[in-house]
Amino acid sequence: MKVAILGYGTVGVGVYEMLEKCAGLEPGPVLVRAGKEDKPFKVSSMEAIAADPSVGAVAEVMGGIEPANSYVTMALKAGKHVVTSNKALVAAHGIELAELARENGVSFLFSAACGGGVPFLHNLAIAAQSDNILSLGGILNGTTNFMLDAMQSDAKDYGDVLREAQALGYAEADPTADVSGLDALRKIMLACAVAYDKLPVDGFSREGIESITAADVADFQLKGLTCRLITSGGPAGETVYAYVEPVLFPANAPECSVVKNFNMAKYNGENAGAIVLMGQGAGRYPTASAVVRDLCGLGSLEMFRPDCVKVSADNSACVHPYYVRVDVDKAPRFSFKECRGDEECVRGIIEPIAVPAMHALADSVRKEGGSIFFAAMEA
Ligand code: HSE
Prior knowledge:
Layout: E1 2-6, H1 10-20, E2 26-31, E3 42-43, H2 46-51, E4 55-60, H3 68-77, E5 81-84, H4 87-103, E6 108-109, H5 120-130, E7 133-139, H6 142-153, H7 158-167, H8 176-179, H9 182-196, E8 198-202, E9 205-206, H10 214-222, E10 225-236, E11 239-250, E12 262-269, E13 273-280, H11 284-296, E14 309-312, E15 319-327, E16 336-341, E17 345-354, H12 355-367, E18 372-377
Parallel strand pairs: 1-2, 1-4, 2-3, 4-5, 5-6, 8-14, 9-11, 11-18
Antiparallel strand pairs: 7-10, 7-12, 10-11, 12-13, 15-17, 15-18, 16-17
Helix pairs in contact: 1-11, 3-4, 4-9, 5-9, 6-7
Bound molecules: L-homoserine (HSE).
Residues 116, 141-143, 170-172, 178, 183, 281-282, 287 line the site of L-homoserine.
């Protein structure tokens, strides 16, 4: 089957190269911006791709919501299968696109949108049909894992490690989505929809790694702790919980061995128990491999099922102690169990507090121009 590719950036090039070597599949036209058609296989008309009867499937790897949404809609209406790596698109319009795919008798798959090369959503979609998924999440952003690992292992600066992650093709076009936790949040939204038929669209708590400093990292290291950006999701009554925040792990925790751009995706099945999947979560070939894996499995799997609905997340029952570093004058609003400070800031562990309450406290500090870093303490 011939596969048209929408976008020829980091992932698009990888998909093209893999399709050239993949039995049963071959690369078709590649959609690029008008004026960029410098090779015979590059075209700038999506209408021509949709009308091409030799194209059986479309791989959308251009990113962003528009024009990706219009192009995917056009492809599905034309009866082409669609595989995408675009988490922003799936988080915003996935339910409607999956419905359109069903109406047109084709597949809409998006393994590459969550976990890079790690087959997380694929396995979750299968597991959710036969088991009760009690919780899910883990390390789902390769850029921030690469950055935290390099800051801790090589004592590098935040700015330097971000530039390295961009150069290696791990980061989003706008890396703010990575470091702010938005990319990881979109991934946990998709995982909740696949596992629970509930796509959380608001009510989240999200904290990235933008506030971490070299002094914070040095302090964790003295205590033998390692920081990772963790996504968490699971059932919460009629809805789901879904949040992203830094977490500090003791040296023997498996998360500490997740280095570079690797991800560690987890789910806990009532019958299967804890399942852990590890691999490269970002980069050209890992992400392209997930796109091509979906193309090889067309017709055998549904990721958004017909009864998937949009919900508000509820994180109020999720409670942790937190490590907090905050300006001296803002410290009294936190219930420190133990702390120490200097003339500028106070550091220590606070009493357990619900996730939304912790995030609201941090917001209140920042709204007043203050500085804070916080990370949940892994029990
Ligand atoms: N920017 C993403 C990451 C790419 O770093 O994980 C893969 O989704």
